[in-house]
Design a protein that fits this description.
The complex is a heterodimer of chains A (about 230) and B (about 280). By secondary structure, chain A is an alpha/beta fold. Helix content of chain A is about 35%, strand content about 25%. In chain A, strands 6-7-8-3-9-10 form a six-stranded mixed β-sheet, sandwiched between helices. Chain A is globular and about 50 Å long. A four-stranded antiparallel β-sheet of chain B has the order 2-3-1-4. Classes of the chains: A alpha/beta (about 230), B alpha+beta (about 280). Chains A and B meet through helix 1, helix 2 and helix 3 of A and helix 7 of B. The structure holds adenosine-5'-diphosphate (ADP) and magnesium ion. Adenosine-5'-diphosphate binds next to helix 1 of chain A.
């Protein structure tokens, strides 16, 4: 699904945020990306999202080289992905419902399907009772669940989450990752950056460790994540 | 919506409208003057009426004439001066001269005929309006040049202010714009509310300006009709044109101001979208 070949990202003359990284992520896989601060985790996600230009190397998604995507095609490319942010990025003056609905408005969905889909997605993250609340009335964990709902509402093929548990109560972190794992169960590829190792070790997913812009360790091949997934849920 | 941009826009539109109205009125007055085939011939105090009549009769280009006594003249002024004042000037103390209203048959011989009239003994002067016409037409040209530049520069100021208003609006909503972009909103989707804001400023200002101008102008017409010896066009004569002109100017300025700013903003300040 995502094939990364020898990518380098140089920000300024000497900052090698990523230095010769190659990875292959299968469709339906759940991947944790871990590593110290400054190791290049966010940069990797930004390159996949085309928020930043690759300095050299290529990224293929479903066989298509993303460096070929034109500027005006970018919005349509991003719609294939659901993004979850560390700081939630909810719009304060909108209700929970509106925050999720406007992701559907962006892609031109009609009001009828919005009214049908948003409550369903909110129920997936157990927020059906709070759809008229404003983000400021919610706890960190609840805010991130709204963020998750927004990320999945348009049925993305890939979910990209950069430290989604970074700003919430550690006791709530597990719940968020579990929700992501549930989404993953339906076939959505999930790439989650985190440095919360206590959460990582509770899940049987692939772990990629970055260090100074290089892949230091990759658990791929050691764990049969697909079957682990199934046992975990049952 | 910023008050400043609405105010500046209204100033721009009002001046544009005033310019238009003055130009239309000058055109109207000129046409009146040029189309006038009668003049007034004023006599000296001691002129011999019969001799002057004879002289006028002898000029071929004069189709008709009638006597306009100073008593009649003072009566006509009564409306303007009030009875008490005009009463003061009645009889011996009447300062006005006797006169004839004279009509021409061929307007193309206007100046030749005027000079013939001036040769008649007892004729003091004529109400020769061609001079006024010439002055007015000069004025029209100067006025057109000045107003052109006023309108252009005020338009530019309006654009600047609108663009600034929208830039501030975008800056205030940059967080939302960021989110929108990162989850796949097209530029058009992001643009729409700001373009609408620009258009709203434009049309709102246009409507306000239209009604303001209508009030100011009808008030002015009332005064003018009592003081200026020319007829002035009523506002209804150009209210449709004015409304169309205002709304389209408002729309265009608002839309251009909006879209240019948004385009610039999206390109420059939004180039790095997500800050993690
Ligand atoms: N926009 C940028 N300009 C310059 N340097 C940057 C930029 N973003 C990140 N970096 C640098 O690139 C390196 C990797 O950053 P990042 O990918 O954010 O790491 P992580 O997310 O793992 O903490 C760091 O040294 C950081 O300082
Ligand atoms: Mg980071």
């Amino acid at each position: 699904m995502i094939t990364i070949t020898n990518i380098k990202k140089v920000y300024e003359k000497n900052i090698f945020a990523l230095n010769d990284v190659s990875l292959n992520i299968e469709q339906g896989e759940f991947v944790f990306v871990v590593g110290a601060s400054g190791s290049g985790k966010s940069t990797l996600l930004k390159l996949i999202l085309k928020e930043e230009e690759i300095t050299s190397g290529n990224i293929f998604i479903s066989g298509a080289n993303i460096t070929r995507i034109k500027k005006r095609e970018l919005p349509y490319y991003r719609r294939k992905m659901g993004i979850v942010f560390q700081d939630f990025r909810l719009i304060d003056k909108m209700t929970v419902f509106e925050n999720v609905a406007f992701a559907m408005r962006i892609v031109g969905a009609n009001e009828r399907s919005i009214r049908r889909r948003v409550p369903y997605v909110l129920s997936l993250v157990s927020l059906e009772g709070k759809s008229n609340r404003k983000p400021c009335e919610l706890s960190g964990g609840e805010k991130q669940r709204v963020g998750l709902a927004r990320a999945i509402v348009n049925n993305p093929k890939i979910i990209i989450a950069d430290e989604p548990t970074g700003n919430i109560d550690p006791s709530m972190s597990y719940e968020i990752v579990e929700l992501l794992a549930n989404i993953n169960l339906h076939g959505t590829t999930v790439i989650m950056v985190t440095h919360d190792l206590s959460v990582v070790e509770k899940f049987p997913f692939r772990i990629i460790e970055l260090c100074s812009g290089k892949v230091r360790a990759d658990s791929a091949g050691f764990i049969d994540y697909q079957s682990e997934n199934i046992t975990k849920v049952s | 919506m910023s008050l400043a941009s609405v105010m500046v826009m209204i100033c721009c539109l009002l001046l544009t409208g005033a310019t238009f109205i003055v130009a239309e009125n000058i055109k109207f007055i000129l046409k009146n003057i040029e189309g006038q085939n009668s003049i007034t011939v004023y006599l000296f105090k001691d002129a011999d009426l019969e001799k002057v009549k004879l002289g006028i009769n002898n000029i071929e280009n004069i189709s008709s004439y009638d006597f306009y006594s100073k008593e009649e003249a003072i009566k006509d002024y009564e409306g303007m001066l009030g009875e008490r004042v005009s009463g003061f000037f009645k009889g011996e103390s009447n300062p006005l001269p006797d006169a004839f209203h004279v009509s021409f048959s061929d307007l193309s011989q206007y100046s030749a005929t005027i000079s013939e009239i001036m040769k008649i003994e007892g004729v003091d002067t004529t109400s020769d309006r061609s001079e006024i016409a010439e002055k007015l037409s000069n004025l029209k040209h100067i006025f057109a040049a000045i107003s052109f530049w006023i309108v252009i520069s005020l338009g530019a100021v309006s654009l600047l202010i609108i663009s600034n208003t929208i830039r501030i609006a975008m800056h205030n909503r940059r967080f939302e714009i960021n989110i929108l972009r990162s989850i796949g909103a097209t530029n058009n989707f992001i643009r729409l509310p700001f373009a609408i804001e620009g258009v709203a400023i434009g049309t709102f200002s246009a409507t306000l300006s239209f009604f303001a101008l209508r009030i100011i102008y009808s008030w002015f017409v009332k005064i003018a009709n009592n003081t200026i010896p020319f007829n002035i066009l009523p506002f209804e004569k150009f209210s449709n044109q004015m409304l169309i002109m205002f709304i389209s100017m408002g729309l265009i300025l608002g839309l251009i101001g909006g879209l240019v700013t948004i385009g610039k903003y999206l390109k420059k300040e939004m180039s790095e979208v997500v800050v993690w």
